[in-house]
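Form P-L/3: holo structure prediction, ligand manganese (II) ion.
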Amino acid sequence: MIRQYELINRVKAYDPDMDENALNRAYVYAMKMHGTQTRASGDPYFSHPLEVAAILTELKMDTASVITALLHDTVEDTDATIEEISSLFGQEIGKLVDGVTKLSQIELQRPEEKQAENFRKLILAMSEDIRVLLVKLADRLHNMRTLHHISKPEKQKRIARETLEIYVPLAERIGIHTWKEELEDLAFKYLNPEARESIAKRLEFLRSEGEKVVVKIIAELTKQLKTADIDAKITGREKTPHSIWLKMQRKNVSFEQLSDIMAFRVIVDDVSACYHVLGIIHGLYPSVPGRFKDYISIPKANGYRSLHTTVIGPENQRIEMQIRTAEMHEEAEFGVAAHWAYKNTEGNAKKGGKQYRWLRELMDIVEQAARPEEFLQHTKLELFQEQVYCFTPQGDLIELPKGATPVDFAYAVHSQVGDTCVGAKVNGRIVPLNTQLQNGDQVEIRTSDKQTPSPNWERFVVTGKAHARIRRFVRMQQVEQYSNLGKAMLQKICRQENIEFQEKPFISVVKQFKADSVEMLYTGVGSGHINGREVFKAAFPEQAAANLKKLKQPNLEALQKPKTQRKRKGKAAPMPIKGLIPGMALHFARCCHPLPGDKIVGIVTTGKGVTIHTVDCESLEAFADTPERWLDVSWDDGEDTPETHIGRLSIVLANEPGSLGTLSTVIGQKSANITNLKIINRQTDFWDILVDVFVHDAVHLEEIIKALRATPEIASVKRTKGR
Ligand code: MN
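OUTPUT (holo model):
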């Protein structure tokens, strides 16, 4: 376990101006908070954050990151809170610790393997400050180094798989090669110990076999480079068991068939020396065509720079050569963190801006469009800031655009889930369906078979899928309504013409009316875009001609036959009208304000469904010559209606103080609400006013009229249907 002063000295070595006091306080605080907690190894728990901090000093990370590493498990595992940490160590540290804590909580979700890519994106999206990601990677590295203390092999395997699928690509992406290789090798050890062992053994064998060759090549190269006056460090380099294993899988070959196991690295002072060395190597040994790669003039997306070539060695074996400068080598091993440290020691960076300089550069690189084989395909990190990633209760990750709501989530899970969604829980709490989801939210959608998409959802959903499904549903519903209505209208015309309704004659005229099917023909008639009588004439030309002269008028008298008095009972019903097709759009005419109890008639209105008028409404005259648009309807006597009907009263009111107050009091006593009041005519003694009240039905309105007539201040009152 690294000691307190050692940690301080390590940071001081690369950052002499570090805040020693803060680091000391963080050390003491974390040690105190973790107290007697222990690790699976039996070590004090505090050894873990301390080691994580030490790992970060290898990257020459700033003091804030090192402090964050010390504190990174306090909120998750002890009584510490973000508020306390912010007040003790400042907002910056507070935010960093909060970020790492959130990542640790996300980790507990354990997504399925197939979702690894989304999970990586989630981690990137949540690491608003890239230092959060670096602390998390160091945390994972230490946990992998100590994984042998975990007793359950299943748990070891799960953690190893997670490491390989999520953290190895992240480390690679930000160019920290050493971490990437170590994480990968540790994971390989737990996931496929036999393969790793076997490859390692054969590497060992090759090493002893090839020792002579290695020595020979290094000697030969050193001599040649000296002649050319080039300072160079030449090292034999071994591939990792995991990279060899991957290659065996990818190329479907055995270990023996792999040719370029042997590799050398030449490190020189500057770029021109790199190309010089390349020329010397190619002069010494024949090169393998197609294997030369110049990552100096075209660096990899993660910033990697080097020259690669493969040559045929003295014993006829393939040898891979990497040529790079010392700076490039540091970068390759430690990513841009090293790049910054390099510049800093050269004194290029001014105090103040230096802390974040390499972070900015790192962000730049992460944001560059990646190569296809890398995991951030054609995407930029900033793009992920436009996404939110949420979990299903099963731990599946759902990727959504920022601003997405539970309804978007439901549609992303499955169209059926979206269509039947009635409510949502986010992180266990019931929330409105228009709530905006946050990264890492766990979303549970409640559904009901009876639910259908609501047109209101259109106002807050953000995903194309949700929009499309809702619109499609609304359209389908309209089509169905109009189709039913149109069919009913044609049936009615047939009845009026004393012809038995059959579908066949109508099918035969479908094309004539530019419809695709008889349903679409019905829909056209129902929505009013096709004239029903024209359709009838086309379908039954003879009858139409014969009956032309005795076109029936609607039988108003029959409609006016008194109906049995309706009785009030039970709960409110959404559809108070009988004689309509269920689900049909329904409007009450503004001209006559029909009330339950009134004799009514339905008129099919173009594009609007059915409008209900009272049978004595004057506007009905306008429909006298289109009797097919008239529908026999009546109030549904069995169902009570809520107080949503407007009754209109024409009142002559004495112009006295308080008479308006009396008027509203009387109406209120009859359990009705005034919704509108308009003064038509103001005279000295009397006012003519129009009052709209919400009532249950005509009987209710009649009761109000009686009560008003008994009021001295009111000269006269009558129900009116005019405007
Ligand atoms: Mn930890």
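COMMENT: The domain at 645-719 is CATH 3.30.70.260 (Alpha-Beta Plaits).
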